[in-house]
Each structure stands twice: as C-alpha cells, then as structure tokens.
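Progress narrative, work stream C.
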Amino acid sequence: MGFKEFIKYQERAITALFAKNELVENWGSGRASCTITHKRPREWVQDPKTGLLVPQLTPIKRKFGPGADFDPFDEIGETETVWNLITNVGRIQLHTAGYGTTGLPSNGFNYIALSNDAVSETAASTTLSNEIAANGLSRAQGTVTLPTGSGTQTTIARTFTATGSQSAQKAALFDASSSGDMNHVLAFTQRSLITNDTLAVTFTITLGA
C-alpha cells in the first residue's frame, strides 16, 4: 500500500468511526437504571405533646448568615446508579401496552418492590425472591413522571421510610400492588436501615430513542 492509499484508508476508517458513534449517540438503546440514596436523620427534637425525642424531618433553619436551610438528613454511604435485568413477561407486557389491541394492562410498571436477597432472578423469573413486606419497605406505588415533547425517559420514584431495622439490596418494578407482572430487576449495595432512615429509589426508563 502506497502512502496516498494509506492516507485514504485512514480517512475512510476515521469517517466510519465517527458515523458509528453518531448513530449510537442518536439512536441510543432501551434500558432502565435505578438510583439509590440512603439517609438518616441528623437531629432529634423533643415532641411537645409526648416529651419523647423524635427525628427532625423538616429542613433545619440556619441561625446565622444567608443561604439555604440545612438538610435534616445525613447520607449513609454513597448514592449509586445500577442497571437492570429485564424479564420476559415484562418485555411482553411493554409491547402489549404500547402496541396491542387486546389484553391491555390496567396499570403500568410503577410499583416498587424491595428484597434483601442477592439477585438470583433470570429473564424467566416472575417473582422477586423474599420480597420485603414489613418495616416500612413493603411494595409501594412510585410517583411517575412521563416524558414530554421529544423526551425518551420515564421516572418512577419512591422514598421509603423504615419503621424498624431492615436491610435491602434488590429492587424491581411490578404492575400491581400484589402479585402482578415483574420487570426491571436490579441489585444495589446492601443498605442497613434503622427506624426513621429513608431509602430513595428512582427508576429511570429510557425508551423510544
């Protein structure tokens, strides 16, 4: 290969690389992620009615100087983002809801369930092993924010407040408050909650890019 041919070859290779990157950037892929944040009350105050110490749950007012009020919670560990396993029944449900004419679901995947098991689920799974049903971490419906305009992301968010000692390290979305179809199973760093701790769980679904 002569020098001129080599230069042309390099130019074609670079052009192809940029074209591939642009396609990936513009087209994207459908997937789901989840953000996990564990917090604990930092201040305790005396309840004027009972005289008992209770956690300070509202922002703490600054005594001196300008600026925003203090967050009444300390973050335990680091906020993390993890990625999902999609189930067969979940994938079929998504296609049915979006394109079907019969068998349409009455509710979307917006119930968040938690477990303290490691992920053993596969694409064929239909239930979340040892789903938590106590201590404030029972399955609950999240707040759904749908995309607008040319947006491609939906979020499902829920902040759980522990009513007792409870650990969690796995989450999934369901389309019902009990039983139902499961989708988007994922694992996160085990969080050990005590009473009044909060666990903020936010699923972000990217679809239609």
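Work stream C, second folded protein:
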Amino acid sequence: MLDLNVLIVFCSHTGLTEKLALAAAVGAVQGRANIRLRHVRTPAGDQTIESEPGWKDSRDRMSQEYVTPRETDLEWADAVIAGTPARIGAASGEWSEFLQLVETAGSRGKLEGKVGTAFTGAAGGTGQESTLAMLCGALAKRGLTVVLPGELDSRNVFSESGALQTVRLQARRVAEITRALKRANCLKQDSATASS
C-alpha cells in the first residue's frame, strides 16, 4: 500500500475551526493517511484579539499546541486541506504567509501531482460558499489539483455536529482520491520506465 501524507492547515480564532480541523484529521486517518496539523497565525493586534471573547485564550493555547506550516510540510504532503472561518477568506492576512509558502513550493515544482481542498467553519449560506471558492481557487492557482467540497447540505452546515461529520467525510474522500491519483501516477511512471 502506498504511503499517503495529508497536511491540514487551519485558521481558528475561538476554536470552532480547530474542532473541524481535528475532524478532518480523523477523516484523513480513516482514509489511511498520515497527518500533520498546522495552525496559521493571525496578524491581528492584541486589542482586536481581546475584543472577541475567547480569542486570546484560544490563540495562546493553540500557539503552544501547534506549529505554523513550513515549506517542508508541503513537500511532505500528498494532499493539503485548508480550513478557515467563513468570514476569513484567502485574501486575508491570516492566509497570506501560508499561500506564499504554497506559491514558492509550486514555483520549485514541489506541488506536482498534489491535491488540495478547503473547508469553512459552520456559518452556512453565501459567505461560506464564497470563502470556499476563494480558498480552493487560491490553491488551484498555485498548482494543486483541487477536489471541491461536496454540495453543502444546509441541514448540516448550521449545526456543529453536522459540520464535523461533513468535514470528516470530506477529508476521508480527499485521502481516497489522492491515493488513487498517486497509484495512477506510480503505474504511469512504472510503465514509462519499462518501455524505455
């Protein structure tokens, strides 16, 4: 069986998207993948962070528990799953450093054959769909083959348990698709080598 590595990168202010990232990790493991969880840091100042209840405590705890993504994580990964609150899109300061890492890795040819997808916190509606479109588009623009999330089920996205289940299933699906693509690429390389 082919080894499969999934990098889960998330932005979370008060912990909801972190829970979803952990659900994605479970789904990826169910898809028989190795995982790494990475947290993108917010560029917001202390005054802004302290204005949202629970953000400062969550930020301090997550800074202790998770490291920020590095280019070596992208090189290691066969698939990248990015998670963000619905109100924080790919153009935000939170994602700029990570997307720059993705762009650098892509320009060095390190993303060839790799898969990407995105999920958002349970907000539902147009904001969630536009955030997903922006983040998936940003990953595709930088060279990843994007697996679009399944159709949003309004019964699921408005409840935390439904959102956790949806993200877990999405990550498992991404692991399975990535494994199939990786297997096809290996067979293609073996065939090319044999015919040489």
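Strands lie at 5-10, 34-39, 79-84, 115-120, 145-146. No further action is required on this item.
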